Every structure is written in structure tokens, then in C-alpha cells.
Amino acid sequence: MRLWEPSTEVVAKSNMNSFMKFVDDHEGLGLDVFEKGSYFKLYRWSVTNIPRFWMHVWDFFGIKCSKRFETVVDDLSKFPGARWYVGARLNFAENLLRHRGHEAALIGVREDGETNAMRFLEFYNEVAAVARGLSESGVAAGDRVAGYLPNIPETVVAMLGATSLGASWSSVGTELGVDAVVDRIGQIEPKVLFTVDGYLYRGKAFDVLERVSQVVERVKSIQKVVVIPYLSESPRIDGLAEAVLYPDFKAREGGAIDFAQVPSDTPLYIMFSSGTTGKPKCMVQPAAGVLVNQLKDVVIHSDLKRGEVITYITTPSWMMWNWLVSSLAAGGTVLLYDGDPNYPDWRRMWRLIDEYGISIFGCSASYINLLRGMGASPRREFGLESLREISQTGSPLSAEGFKWIYDEVKRDLHFNSISGGTDINGTFANGSPILPVYAGQIQSPSLGMKIMCYDERGEPVFDREGELVCEAPAPPMPLYFLNDPGDEKYLDAYFRYYTHKRVWRHGDYVIFHSDTGGITFLGRSDAVLKPSGVRIGTAEIYSIVESFREVADSLAVGQEWRGDQRIILFVKMAEGYVLTEELKNRIKQALRERASPRHVPAIIMEAPDIPYTYNMKKVEIAVSNIINGRRVTNRESIRNPESLDFFEKAAEILRSG
């Protein structure tokens, strides 16, 4: 079902149109943005002429560098291992700090309403002061700096201060507990740790310094702790070893920043896997590759214009934080919201959209489904005149979720569902402001990402379920994993599923649609259900079950049962509803009629909550392990680990019959 078509004006003014003209001027491809199929013509060229495409992306954005690259990519046959923008010397922070005007760069909004705004010139000076403080603390290129921080402007400042020196940055949100923090930053051995004295969530203040003290005690590499006052103007830090308050740490006069010019493959970010199956993997990502790819995502695909306000519901634990702050390089104003986006009620973010004139609003599928379950209707209560795009990621969203956006938010709006991963700090599939939106489909593959859907034999397929793969290297792919001799974990994670082909298998179950060019995501392929050996994506079930107004959320797992597998469906009820036999029967009937008899669960149970990672993905594997009597490791990687208590009790009932 087609839900939206961009107007002629939107297409003409889009950054995609500008990029098409830029490429066409150099390549003579005959691209015409108003010609049907023009996007897919550009896409096909981008994945068959990979070096030239990524050269044009670099030039289109005018990447600031002290030395241009000698070679775009050294060898595409090295997969993994291809080196990008060989010979270039640049600085990531310099590119994000290229603007110096008096327009707003960052707007920090706390849950209690307190705000902290920085204009670009002020922002630059703040980064300069922090960079000077880090330099005086002995931080230099090759070192690592970490943040244990909420979603506030100072987090961005600290990141850019570190990367301006050529150091690597890694961050976790203050919502993580001590063990989860140590499991992550303990592996990267940072020299300096930025943190806060506490944070707010759902109207309550939470102290962080006691946790920080335990972290510092266990992570021996930390030589200095910089505490940003958040709950108090003068927090007590005398009991914290090597601690200094942020105002005292900053140099009095930052001056001009001496941006360290580093090789293109210098480690920029160290990102962490979710950690639901063991200690999180540390993915080391390159400065140039991440910068160029994120600008492609944010500016060309998401169509961010200079001066527009963009926000995402995220924390520094999630790659969408890194993705969001790249908007600064385009001159966008980044609004950082810290707190529960539904406190004191679901209207919180929509008020901010009207108050700050937000143009692009990013959220997760779980956020949309929560509002759907509440019966919320933003368009009935807010003007939303500035809002022209909603970006959604984290997990697949059903066709009904897409339709809710157009029915209850805004008719004329680009709903830009995207999918990629922490692994690449960007997208494999993305939207396009020049394409129509179809219910339940991401609009297109991302430019330059040679993705395909493979069947069980490793053959390309359309219009049926299969594995998402990437058939060629791309600039943002990890350089390596930390603590991974011989790249064994790296190869196991992505390259050893198909033994006869060297492709990146991403772990998503998808359908590539031949008629629209769009892609439907069906959930993580490692959570695929296999009743009687038939593969079923969990998102196929969720899209139907969560269309019931009585259901707020759901989770499906397979239980090994009498030599086969049976589907167990857990549903979290919307406020005011209970799970009745009559509703169970209606759910089963809908699954049978709208999907297949194979999709019908053997048992439906009501759950008080559904577990999620900090990256807003349903924790199907942990629940599957519990139901099948296997051990669950690393509960601290789960946002709401207490929710697992119910599933442990449910497992006893299910195993008994």
C-alpha cells in the first residue's frame, strides 16, 4: 500500500537531487530526478562503480583534510580488510566543527525542563577548552577516552575534544549498571573518563558517583575522571580518586583548536555489540569511513538542510547518538533530550517538536507501538508544522505502524524507516526523499551499499524471505575487533555463514520487493522460528499481533517440543485490556488468515513487560534461552532485566506441558 508520494517541490529541493546533479556532472549518466527509476539507476551505478561513487561522496561534502587521499580503496577483493581513502590525513572533529556562526548548534533539554543551548561559535570554544584540558592531561593521538554520560551537550563536547586530538571515543549511557560499564569500557582501557554526578528519569534523581567509584576501581587504565555537574552545581567528588570537576578541567582559554591530522583509518569510535550472548564485542571504526558514510545517510538520504533542527530518542549507549551528532557537519541544530520521552505523558516529544521547530524526529519501533497502544493521536493535539520527516529504526515496524504515522501524526510527511547497525555506525537500507513510502517497507538500499537477499543456499532471491548480506566492502565497516587475535571473532560474526562466498551476513531476515525496490525487515535471523523446519521471521507475527488495539507489544520464541519446535507468543496488553480466550482466538485466526497456519502460536501468554536491549531491540534470544532451559548471560545488557523474571516462571509452566 502506497502511503506517501513526495511533491514535485520536495523532490526538486532535495539533497538527493543535488547529489544526483553532482554525480551526473562528473559521470554523464543522464540522471533526471523526475524520471521514474532515477534513484535505482543511481544506486546500481553506485554499487558497480564503488570507488568512483565514494570519491564523489567525499567531494560532494567537501571533506576538510590536510591531505587528499591517493586511492579511494586499495583492494575491493580484500573483504574484510579493504582500506579506504588511502593516504588522506584529516580530523573528524574538524569536519563537525566547520561552522562558526551564531546559529544554534546544540540544544540540551532535560526531563525537568531545564535547557542548555550552545551556538556554533560558543560550541567551538567549549570543545577547544576541553581539548586543551585533555591535552594537558596527556591525551594524544592513539589514546582512548570514554564517557559514562547522559544525552547532554557536554557529551558531544567531550567526544569532539577527544577526537580533535586524534584519540578514540567510546561512550555508554548512565542507565547502565557497573558490570555492564566495566564489561564495555574495561576492554578499551581509556585514559580519561567523563561522567556526571547523577541523572533524572521519570521524575527521580539517580546518583552516579558511587557507580563511577566502582568502575574506576575495576578499570585500572583510568588516570583522570572528569565529573560534569548535573544534579548539583558543586557535587562532592572528594571520595573519588583522580577526579576533577568539569569547570575546573577545562582550560580557561581554549583558543584555536590544533586539529590532529591523522590517517584515514585511524580508530575513531569503539562501539559495543549488545552483549546479550556474552561480553560485548568492541568494534573499532575508522575516522574517514564513518564520517563520509554518516554524512551520506544524514544529508543525502535523510535530507537534512542547514539550520534545521533534528533529534532522535537515544542515549550515548546507542549508535544513533553517534549518527545524530554527525548532523553538526551539515550545519544542522541537534536537540538532545535526556530523560523518559513519555514523561510525564506521551505528549512530551510532540511538545518539543512544536516548541523548537523540529524538522526531523527520530524514534524506535517500540516508541511508535507504545503510542499506538495508548491510542495517542499527535495530530489532534499539536500543530507539527515544522515536522517534515520521522526517522524510525531499532527493530522492524509493521505495516500498521507505518499507517499509524500517516493517520495519527501527519498526512504529508516523509516516514523514513532505516536499518543498519552498530557494526557500521550507519545504514544498509534507508529512505529517499524522492521515492514513495509503502507500508511496511524501507524505501531502498543505501547508496554505495551492495546489499542483497540470499536464500539458504546463498543465492540471490526476490519476493521471498532470506538473509541480508552485503557483497562488497564499504568505508564504515570495522577495522577490527579489540582483543581478537587473527580476526576470529570478526570473521565468525559476519563472514563464515556462507562457506562458498565471502559476503557480510548481517543477521537480518528480509524480503527484497521486485515491484517497489523496497525492503521489508522481518527480524533478526538468529531469532527465526522453525516450526516443522519452516523458517518464519518474528516480525511477520508482530506486524499482525500488534495491529490489535488490545496489544501494546509482543514477543515470539520457539520452544523445542517433542522433536519439533512450537511457537510461544507473549503479549503485553495495552492499558485497560486483559488477555481473554476470545482475544487469543482472534489473534490465532488473524495469523492463520493473514500469514499462514505455520505462524499460529501453540500457546499465547500475557507478559507484564517485553525485554529490550539498550539499542531498542527485542531480546528474543535471552527469552528463547530461558524457555529452552539454557543459561542467560549478561543480563546487564538488557534495559529492563527484571522483565526476565516472568519468563523464568513461564518456562517452568511451559516445560511441564
Briefly characterize the structure:
Helix content is 31%, strand content 24%. With 657 residues, the chain is an alpha/beta fold.
Question: What's the helix and strand layout?
Answer:
Blueprint: E1 2-4, H1 8-13, H2 15-27, H3 38-48, H4 50-61, E2 65-67, E3 71-73, E4 84-86, E5 89-90, H5 92-96, E6 104-110, E7 115-119, H6 120-136, E8 144-148, H7 153-164, E9 168-172, H8 178-188, E10 192-196, E11 198-201, E12 204-207, H9 209-218, E13 224-228, E14 243-245, H10 246-249, E15 262-263, E16 267-272, E17 282-286, H11 287-301, E18 309-312, H12 319-325, E19 333-338, H13 348-356, E20 358-364, H14 365-374, H15 378-381, E21 389-393, H16 399-408, E22 414-417, E23 419-421, E24 426-430, E25 437-438, E26 444-445, E27 451-454, E28 465-470, E29 480-481, H17 488-494, E30 504-512, E31 519-524, H18 538-545, E32 551-561, E33 564-573, H19 581-594, E34 603-606, H20 620-627, H21 644-655
Parallel strand pairs: 6-19, 8-9, 8-10, 10-13, 13-14, 18-19, 18-20, 20-21, 21-22, 33-34
Antiparallel strand pairs: 1-25, 2-5, 3-4, 5-15, 6-7, 11-12, 16-17, 17-29, 23-24, 24-26, 27-28, 28-30, 30-31, 32-33
Helix pairs in contact: 3-4, 4-11, 6-7, 8-9, 20-21
